[in-house]
Design goal:
single chain; 431 residues; alpha/beta; Rossmann fold; ten-stranded mixed sheet; 11 helices; 25% helix; protease; carboxypeptidase activity; hydrolase; Peptidase_S51_cyanophycinase; peptidyl-dipeptidase activity
């Protein structure tokens, strides 16, 4: 087992510097391959910039995240372009973002790129804006770009030409990133950060029960984070960690990063990650997986899952995790309640359930805990899934309550997933 495929925890050491019809599907696959090759080239060019990947629902009073965005953009007076392309109401969304970033000290402005903006003849303006020299020149003097939330497919529509190549505006954004600028995005604006993104995904359970199709559930993203990493958002509150797994497996993406709401992960030079904000980040590692899905349904064996919260850091190359300085190693069972936690979680896709499970596991004498994902409705698909979380020799946990709430860091938990058949009805009235 190579050390590069394991998560290691580093304590007290600084981080190192730094996917219709058959033919249409084939075309889309080729386009995604082209984007992937472009992203590999960018990595080789040593991108100097940073990313602020926000899980959505970022509160305006979350000063620690907003201030950090302005700081990484260059500090007070930093010029930040707001791109509201994903929004159903780009003008309102864009102006709100301009206002809030100005309140935190940035010189923010609206870049009117959206399928919703129309000219006097009722035609979309984005095909002109994405190659307009006015905006291309302005980006040369801009230090950050912020993508709003909404529908991520709207972003890629206005920034890729029909043949899948980058528009001049997207190239200008990449230039900003290469020279050391910040690319920020929330919700849909976070989804576009990886080469592959969810596009028209159904529910988490539906994604587990059915095949993944390039050009339908997933599509090409903008790839700022570099190759071999998959990004998802609204992660913990919506149980979306589970929908990442079949995409990563089918597209052979070894590392997944899922960020929760009101939380950001800052990534520097496509290598060093830091968690900032209210909740945290789920890290999924499929480098050691041993069993893949079959016709009987999605299944996975020997993956690794970790959880990082505010202040934690991760080296995306070495996989070394550095807990925040205020956290202490969990050496023994922390409370009498820890060994009284349920051994089976009936809905692992529920709000925060996966974090609760692995946090309870790491401070419990138990060696493993299980969770289920299924639809209890009597007329629904009987295919469900068992998630088996197990401690390994590498499993570690850290804890802090200095912020007034419980903050955990959990690393190296083994995750196996297997399909199960639920009985219908699940329960009956006692008569």
């Amino acid at each position: 087992m190579s050390s590069s495929s394991q998560f290691r925890v580093s304590v007290g050491l600084p981080m190192l510097a730094g996917f219709p019809h058959m033919f249409s599907s084939l075309i889309i696959c080729l386009l995604m391959l082209g984007v992937s090759m472009n992203a590999r080239a960018e990595t080789g060019m040593q991108v100097k910039g940073s990313l602020a990947i926000i899980g959505g629902a970022l509160r305006y009073d979350n000063s620690v995240v907003w201030q950090r965005i302005v700081q990484e953009a260059g500090g007070q007076g930093a010029k930040i372009a707001i791109i509201p392309a994903a929004s159903a109401n780009p003008d309102r969304t864009g102006q709100n973002l301009v206002k809030i970033l100005k309140q935190y000290g940035a010189d923010a402005y609206l870049l009117p790129l959206s399928i919703k903006y129309l000219d006097k003849d009722g035609k979309p303006t984005y095909t002109k804006v994405n190659r307009d020299t006015q905006w291309l020149d302005q980006l040369k003097n801009t230090s950050a770009v912020y993508f709003s939330g909404g529908d991520q497919s709207r972003i890629t529509k206005v920034l890729f030409d029909e043949d899948g190549t980058r528009t001049p505006l997207l190239e200008a954004i990449w230039d900003l990133y290469r020279r050391g600028g910040l690319i920020a995005g929330t919700s849909a604006g976070a989804a576009i950060m990886s080469e592959t993104m969810f596009s028209n995904a159904k529910s988490v359970l539906h994604t587990l029960q059915n095949e993944i199709h390039v050009g339908r559930e997933i599509d090409q993203g903008l790839g700022f984070i570099g190759p071999h990493i998959f990004v998802d958002q609204h992660l913990i509150i919506r149980g979306r960690f589970a929908r990442m797994l079949p995409v990563m497996q089918s597209q052979q993406i070894p590392l997944g990063l899922g960020v929760d709401e009101n939380t950001a992960m800052f990534i520097f030079q496509q290598r060093n990650l830091e968690v900032v904000g209210y909740k945290g980040v789920i890290v999924l590692d499929l480098n050691q997986q041993q069993k893949k899905s079959t016709k009987t349904g999605f299944q996975l064996q020997n993956a690794r899952i970790s959880y990082l919260s505010h202040g934690d850091k991760l080296d995306l190359i070495t996989k070394a995790i550095t807990p925040s300085a205020d956290k202490e190693l969990i050496k023994t069972t922390q409370s009498e309640e820890a060994d009284q936690q349920p051994r089976m979680y009936s809905d692992i896709l529920a709000n925060t359930a996966v974090v609760e499970l692995i946090s309870n596991l790491i401070e419990s004498p138990a060696r493993s805990l299980k969770g289920l994902a299924f639809d209890a409705r009597s007329n629904s698909n009987s295919l469900g899934f068992e998630f088996h979380f197990q401690k390994t020799p590498e499993s570690l946990g850290y804890y802090s309550s200095q912020s007034g709430m419980d903050n955990f860091t959990v690393s190296g938990i083994r995750l196996d997933v297997r399909p199960i058949k639920m009985k219908k009805p699940l329960y009956q009235e006692v008569k």
